[in-house]
Amino acid sequence: MTLFFRTPLSTALSLTALLMAGASGGAHASAYAYSYNSIFGLTISNPTGSISVAGNTDISRSTATLNGGSIIRGGNGFVDAPQSALGAVSKAQNNFTQQGLGNASYSRGDAQIITSQIPPFPPGATSTHSVNAAEAFLFDTGSADASGRNGSNTGLSVNLVVGAPGATILFNFLAAPFMQAYLDTLAGPGSASSSNMSVNFTITNALGQNVFNWSPDGKVGSGISGGTELADAADLNISYAANTLTAGKMLTYDPLGCGAPAGTGSGTSCGGAYTALSNNLVAGNYALTLNTVNSADLTIVPRVVPVSEPGTLALLVLGLLGLCLRRSGR
After folding, report:
1. Residue 209: helix, strand or coil by DSSP?
2. Are 296 and 196 in contact (CB under 8 A)?
3. Which is it for strands 80-87 and 106-115: parallel, antiparallel or unpaired?
4. Contact status, residue 285 vs residue 155, Cβ threshold 8 Å
5. Which residues have C-beta within 8 Å of that of residue 32, sequence separation ≥ 6?
6. Whether 236 contacts 171, CB under 8 Å
7. Which segments within 94-247 are labelled E, that is strand?
8. Which of 126, 307, 315, 323 has its CA 20 to 30 A from that of 31?
C-alpha cells in the first residue's frame, strides 16, 4: 500500500520563505565594552622646599559616537561633564554603574570631579575624587565608542629657599579600576571590542621639558621617570580587547577584586594605594598636568553566511511548488 501525504500550497510557500530567510542569514551579532575608574583620596603635597600654586584649570569631558553620530560635552573649566548619550541609554548622568548588554545599540560617556584639592572644591576640600565611565553596546553591524575624561592643568612656582636644594611633590591616591569587553560568536573577522583606561601625572618646566612623568602600571619602580614610586597597586594604563579568537567570553579586568561598581559608582569603600615622590625641582615655574581617561570602542563586521546559488534555490522552490500542485490535484 502506498501512502500519499498532501502538502497544502500555503505550507510549501511557508517552507520556501523559511529557506529564503535561512539563506540570507537572520542572526544578529553583538558587542559590549565598559571601562570605569574611580580615583579618590588624591592629595598633592610638598614635603620639602616651598611651592605655590599660580593657577588651575579643571577639565571634565565626555564623548559618545554611534554609527556615524557623535556628541561631545564638557571640557576645560568643567568639574562635572554632562553625560554624552546616543541610542538606548537608560542610565542617568553621574550614574557610573553598568547598563550592560541589551537588544538595542547605545553609547555613553560620563565624567565627574566630585571634589578637588586644587583649588578647594567644594570649599574646604582637602583631596580630589574623580570618576570616569565609558560604555557601549552594539546590536548587529556598525561601530560605537565612548569616553570619559577628568583632569587638571595647574601652574606651580617653586620658590627659592636659602639652603635647600629645591622642592619635591608627593602624590598619594586610591583607585578602583574595572573593565569588561565582550564579542559574540556571530561577529565576523575584523570585529573587535576594547575597554581602555589611562592615568598620567606630568610636570613640565618653563622650557616645555618633562621633568616628571608617572603612569602607574602595577609594578613598583616601573612607569615613572623623574621620581620614585612607592606604591602601585594595579595597572591603570591598560587595554582589554575581545576579538573573534575570544568570541563568546566576557573578559573582565578587576585586579583589586572590588567588583563592578555599585550604587551610583561613586563609592570609596574599595581601592588600591598609589604613591610617588618627584625628584628635587629647582626654583622656577612648572606646569602639573593630571589626565585620567576611560574609553570603550566597538566594531562589528558582518559574518559572511554561505547561501545557495540563485539557480539552485530557484529549482528547489519550483520543485516544492510542483510537488504540492501535483498532490493537490489527486
Report:
1. coil
2. yes
3. antiparallel
4. yes
5. 100, 101, 136, 137, 138, 180, 181, 182, 193, 298
6. no
7. 106-115, 128-139, 142-159, 168-175, 178-183, 192-205, 210-214, 224-225, 227-232, 238-243
8. 307
pTM: 0.85
Q: ∠62-68-70 over CA atoms, to 5°?
A: 20
| 25 phi, psi to nearest 5 deg | 85, 110
The per-residue pLDDT for range 12-60, each reduced to its tens digit, is: 434 443 333 344 445 789 999 999 999 999 999 999 999 999 999 999 9
CA distances 121 to 60, 115, 118, 126, Å, are: 14, 5, 8, 9
Please give the Cα distance from 61 to 98 (Å, whole number). 19
| Ordered DSSP codes for 119-159 | TTBSTT--SEEEEEEEEEEEESSEEEEEEEEEEEEEEEEEE
Q: Please give the C-alpha separations between residue 97 and each of 89, 167, 298, in angstroms, as whole numbers.
A: 12, 40, 19
CA-wise closest residue to 139 among 296, 299, 30: 30
**Cα–Cα distance between 6 and 14 in angstroms, integer?**
15
- DSSP-assigned beta bridge partners for residue 149: 61, 293
Question: Nearest CA to 240 among 29, 63, 33?
Answer: 33
| Pairing mode of beta strands 238-243, 210-214 | unpaired
DSSP 252-283: EE-TTS--S--TTS---SS-EEEEEEEPPB-S
How many other C-beta atoms are found inside a 10 Å radius of the C-beta of residue 163? 4
Cα–Cα dist 27/243, whole Å? 18
The answer to whether the CB of 125 falls within 8 A of the CB of 271 is: no
Per-residue pLDDT of 140-195, as tens digits, reads 889 999 999 999 999 988 886 766 788 999 999 999 999 999 999 999 999 999 99
CB 50 within 8 A of CB 158: yes
Q: Residue 228 in contact with residue 276, Cβ under 8 Å?
A: yes
